[in-house]
């Protein structure tokens, strides 16, 4: 049995709300006979809570044939020095904890930050394992494109050295965006070194939850909006999510159709308080904010709404493409989507699964929601089915696991 280690600082199982990419892959690989272990921090980034009992440095837990190793890290509340210490402590503790375990055949080290990839390489060398790097963001190029750092500055130059250290030593480089392969080639590496494996969703689990699942949290949300057309945003509430467009669109919608359309904003993040204040100042009676829900509950909530919403900024970094987890859940749910974005891989347009609008144009976004509201049930179902057909072909976790297995 091949032993695979996946290292991701922020990996989580579906009992928690958030990105379950690595759990989904690990669960599918386990079904195929692999022994998969995920190494992750025990400090939950969203709730800012430590999940390990006092005195423990790490803890093993098995969830659906996937072994998690939860590693103790320095707690933090904000994106300040303590979060830097959290990153450093995870990387250091990851090395000393993981080296105690039986040698794997392959180590996949996933970058939110590059230190995980560096530790992954050091452990692969020590354990005589194949080393695969997963680059989930094109750093430092993304920061350069966004104007956060100077291309010729010391920070960018240092990150370039780290980037090349990782790329040179990896047997394969997994990227999540379609044009990221071209970026890897532009850095001087052969085309066959990079492999595109985007995000996706477990359609089998999604459908099983719809069939058998119940959720008091979801029922509590939906019962407040019985008889109304429900437009849902589900996910993080941060600067990157361009939520002002959705709130402003709710104002346009309210002015045109009154309270017939309800906006459900389910999630949390640093912009939430600001958005709630904005909604109050606009005197909105059609927008409702809710706490995040478990990943297991996502299918049930999507099943109970009428249209799903995504809004993005117009940023140069999207020239490499996007791979939004919420988008794949939306597509799986067979709901039409209103998508405010200008990206290289516009899946909503490609799949004919909804309406794409200009990023930042709240009126156009509102008009698209009203257009879907005025559609026949049959037309809305057609758009939803188009999205479902697309994800079954391109983004089911079984399809993506085939691609991952090809490099294991």
Q: Going across the major beta sheet, what is the strand order? A: 5-6-2-1-7-8-9-10
Gyration radius, rounded: 21 Å
Q: Spans with pLDDT under 50 lasting ≥5 residues?
A: none
Helix amount, in percent?
40-55%
If you had to describe this structure to a student in words, what would you say it looks like?
This protein has 408 residues and is of the alpha/beta class. It is 42% helix and 19% strand. The protein contains 16 helices and 16 strands. Strands 5-6-2-1-7-8-9-10 form an 8-stranded mixed β-sheet. Helix 1 crosses helix 16, helix 3 runs parallel beside helix 5 and helix 12 packs across helix 15. The chain is globular. It starts with a strand and ends with a helix.
Helix/strand layout:
Elements: E1 3-7, H1 21-31, E2 35-41, E3 43-44, E4 49-50, E5 58-63, E6 66-71, H2 81-98, E7 106-111, H3 114-127, E8 130-135, H4 141-145, H5 154-169, E9 172-175, H6 180-186, E10 194-196, H7 203-212, H8 216-222, E11 229-234, H9 243-257, E12 261-266, H10 272-281, E13 287-290, H11 298-303, E14 307-311, H12 325-332, E15 337-340, H13 347-351, E16 354-357, H14 362-374, H15 377-394, H16 397-405
Helix pairs in contact: 1-16, 2-3, 3-5, 9-14, 12-15
